[in-house]
Amino acid sequence: MSRLDDELRVAFKREEPSADFAARVLARIAEAENRKPAPTLWQRFREFFSPAVMPWAVATAALLLITAVAFIQFQSRFTKQEGAIARSNENQRLFSTSEAVATVKEKTMPKVMPESEKQPMQTVSHRIIKRRIQPRLPHEPTKSRAPEGEIAMTRKSKGELARDQLYKALAITSELLQEAKEIALTGGR
Amino acid sequence: MSRASAGDQFAFADLVRENQAMIFSIAYHFLRDRSLAEELAQEVFLLLHQNLSSIKSPAHLTFWLRKVTSHRCIDATRRLQARPQLYLEDVPEPAVEDAPTDPMLSRSLQKMVESLSENARLVLILRYQEDLEPTEIAETLGMPLNTVKSHLKRSLATLREKLSRTLGEVNV
Question: Most buried residue among A22, A145, B79, B103 by CB atoms closer than 10 A?
């Protein structure tokens, strides 16, 4: 420790301020507090999230969240119920239509015959072709007009053709209805 | 301190009384002006009142006060740029040739210290007024330790040389 060190310690010894220093400090603090500026937006925002307010804010947010979730679930369940009712009604209508189609089919379709009794179906056109191919005998007189029976046969065969087409259409409709019913039952899966 | 943090004005007044000499002396030795030093010390205590909640212990309080006062001193000097600066070479040498009495030597030393740079002055004040170690000074001023040591070494060498020249054969 040199003399310079000692002299510096003496030169820099602590000194007291004026006697009323503390009182003046307190007065300045009081003055500063009295003219405190209005809190800024940021200060208000920070105050809002102060420890005293935070639990209430959290509780309110949780309550809102629970209410929102419950409302969404209720709405979803209600929509599902409405959908199920609509599907059931649609199924009912499909069943009715299907039954009606089946009844029509039953009434219009010929009764199924045993295999042994079945004869190969020969349409009028077949018969006409057969007749045309058949060679005419020289002594056989030329017929100028088709006989009455043949005309009746031609008309009958036309009716059969129409009936065939109707059966096909009914079969297709029936299949389509069946498919629609399955889709409605399975929900398109 | 906890009572002062809770808003007890009497407790805060006690804190002021306990620390006012330290704060005022740092400011006074740095600025060499009593009224400026008191003004600065009051500002420091106002800041302390606003930041009391962030102070964790008495040791932290002392550290915080020294740090804020040091920074405020530098700020105050910069605000007072118009004030004429005194350089070491311009300091009038004491008229007396004899071995000086301590008060005179102290006054000479103080005037010589005024001519040092701001940081060097602060380092000397904290070293000899507050008796802080270089590591503590470095922490307080936010300065590298080697810079603090360098300031101390150079300042002391300058002061020693100047005093030797001034006081002749006096062993300093």
Answer: A22
